[in-house]
Amino acid sequence: MRLLSVALFLFTVSPILAQKYITRAAEVSFLSDTDAIEVVAAKNDQVGAVIDLSNGDLAFQVQMRAFHFKIALMEEHFNENYVESDRFPKATFRGRFVDLPLPNLLTEQELSVKGVMDMHGVQKEMTFAVVLSWQDGSLQGTSSFDLRCSDFNIEIPKIVSDKISNEIQVTVKALLTKL
Fold first, then answer.
1. Exposure check for the chain: N or C terminus, fewer CB within 10 A?
2. What are phi and psi of 41, to 5 degrees?
3. Domain map of the chain by residue range?
4. What is the rounded distance in angstroms from the CA atom of residue 33 to the CA atom of residue 38?
């Protein structure tokens, strides 16, 4: 009887487990407004992400110190003066696909995601578009959206406020494999 219970449990749970996809190498990059005097750009390819297609949940975790800039001084200012990486070492997003076609995602689709971004000690509800597609058996997701530094209490000193934009263009690329 116990063996039958275990077999039944595995039979019902395994399709659900097969719907989870994970990566530890998603890429998040950002670019300040290109009309600003000083263009600020950085890339982080050590981002963790999980997507559960069985219920539409997704989560991302970004280590702030893993952003790299072309100019070392920008990286130092980013970590010490703006995002305060020692106090706020990571940013997270937890959300859910609003319109995920279940049970299967058969073709490339643009979907909406709604959730909470937690960055610099501030939580903000957000909704943005994500494109999901299949690539050689892996799940590929991409998204682009804008963040305002002021929404997350990230202060831009007045001395550089005319050079650095408050609005940042964020791009996310993730290739997730089955868990």
1. N
2. -135, 140
3. 20-178
4. 9
Q: What values do phi and psi take at 12, rounded to 5?
A: -85, -30
Distance CA 107, CA 40 (A): 35
Nearest to 176 by CA among 8, 72, 58, 2: 58
How many residues are there in the chain? 179
Q: Which CATH number fits domain 20-178: 2.40.100.10, 3.40.1110.10, 2.40.128.110, 3.40.50.720?
A: 2.40.128.110
The one-character DSSP state at 71 is: S
Give pLDDT, residue 157: 82
Please give the single-letter amino acid code of residue 170.
Answer: V
Dmax (CA) of the chain: 73
Which two tokens mark 120? Answer: 């610099």
Query: Residue 99 — pLDDT band, cuts 50, 70, 90?
Result: confident
Tell me which residue of 55, 56, 120, 59 sits closest to 94, measured CA to CA: 59
Q: The pTM is what? A: 0.84
DSSP-derived letter for residue 155 is P
Of the candidates 92, 89, 85, the one whose C-alpha atom is nearest the C-alpha of residue 60 is 92
Q: Give Cα separations from 134 to 47, 55, 75, 164 (angstroms).
A: 20, 18, 34, 37
